[in-house]
Amino acid sequence: MIAVCQQLRWPNPPASPDPLPVELAITSPAAGAVFPFPGTVSGTIAGAGTVIVLDDTSDLRQVLARIGSFFAHESCGKCYPCQMGTQRQAELLARVARGEARPTDAADLVELAGVMADTSICGLGQAAPMAALNAYQHWPELFSP
Fold it and tell me: Residue 99, Cβ neighbours under 10 Å: how many?
């Protein structure tokens, strides 16, 4: 639940190839905000039926590290791009969350996401980098050293 005084920061369906734009923010049911949001592009999916909603007091670096850890744990290991990609992503996001980002981390994340999307056998490997890429698109400073 988001308190009235808090600003919504990131509505994100974690496994969606089409993350929801931040501008389509949930304010409160009393204010008339609904899901799907008015203006949402037809055909946009809500991932696995979940939406992560964070306010401005959330540390996005920590959230991304947790999401990265989740995907690394859930990878079955059947295909190498997903098995190794989710592990490398989790390591990169954990390093960023500790405040130890490297100058190449953002570029490495984008490259890793492309390889995973193009070569993973199943949707888990293809979806694993979506939350981090969405965050990078909106807040590239999160990945700066």
Answer: 8
Tokens 């990078």 -> residue: 136
Task: Return the structure tokens found at 111.
Answer: 């490259």
CA distance 74 to 102: 26
Helix 80-97, helix 105-119: angle, nearest 10: 160
CA-derived radius of gyration, the chain: 16
Digit-coded pLDDT (tens) for 48-94: 556 666 667 788 899 899 999 999 999 998 999 999 999 999 999 99
Sign of CA dihedral 90, 88, 125, 55: positive
Query: Mind listing the domains of the chain with CATH numbers?
Result: 1-58 (no CATH), 60-143 (1.20.1440.230)
36: cis peptide before it, omega within 30°?
yes
Q: What is the rounded distance in angstroms from the CA atom of residue 140 to the CA atom of residue 82? A: 24
